[in-house]
Design a protein that fits this description.
Strand content: 35-45%
Distance between the termini: 28 Å
Order of helices and strands: EEEEEHEEEEEHEE
Mean pLDDT: 78
Number of strands: 12
Length: 171
């Protein structure tokens, strides 16, 4: 039991098992729900789900560069979204197997109040060099843009064999 939310921010086309799934390029393509205590909805969200696995190969690209630029301009009306989110008491979650999470607008993988998560073989990459150039070009000392690799709260976690490059909180 639980709810999986794959909202309109991901391409509607069928994605091959080893393919790439890009998120919407602009914040206009993302839904938000302030009444649920959050701002922009995650690209993939799991609420109260048990025994869920997201495994690669393949990638989910959050197209973060446009978000970061828009944030510098002060034009993002809500908090930037997470790329993949598990919460609401989800249990026995598995993420990895060569899956690549790229350039999230905010956190790449957020595990909130999860009981039992196995994260193995996950690859997170955030173009922090492009972030740095963007921030310095705008005369802003903001780096990074809070693009955490794995942000976890709850109990019974294993995070192993992960390759995370984001110049922020890795885990």
């Amino acid at each position: 039991e639980g709810t999986l939310s794959v909202l309109d921010r991901l391409c509607r086309e069928e994605t091959p098992a080893n393919g790439s799934t890009p998120a919407s390029l602009t914040y206009c393509g993302w839904t938000h729900n302030k009444s649920k205590g959050r701002d922009y909805d995650p690209a993939l969200a799991f609420y109260g789900c048990d025994d869920v696995a997201i495994e690669g190969p393949g990638e989910i690209n959050g197209n973060g560069y446009r978000w970061w630029w828009t944030e510098l301009l002060g034009a993002v009306p809500y908090k930037r979204p997470y790329l993949v989110y598990f919460g609401g008491g989800s249990r026995r979650v598995s993420v990895g197997g060569g899956l690549r999470l790229i350039d999230a607008p905010h956190n790449h993988l957020f595990l909130e109040r999860v009981d039992g998560a196995d994260v193995r073989g996950l690859k997170v990459w955030c173009d922090w060099r492009r972030q740095r150039a963007l921030a310095h070009g705008a005369g802003v000392p903001m780096l990074p843009f809070n693009t955490d690799g794995v942000d976890a709260s709850g109990a019974n976690f294993t995070i192993a064999d992960a390759a995370i490059e984001n110049f922020d909180d890795v885990i």
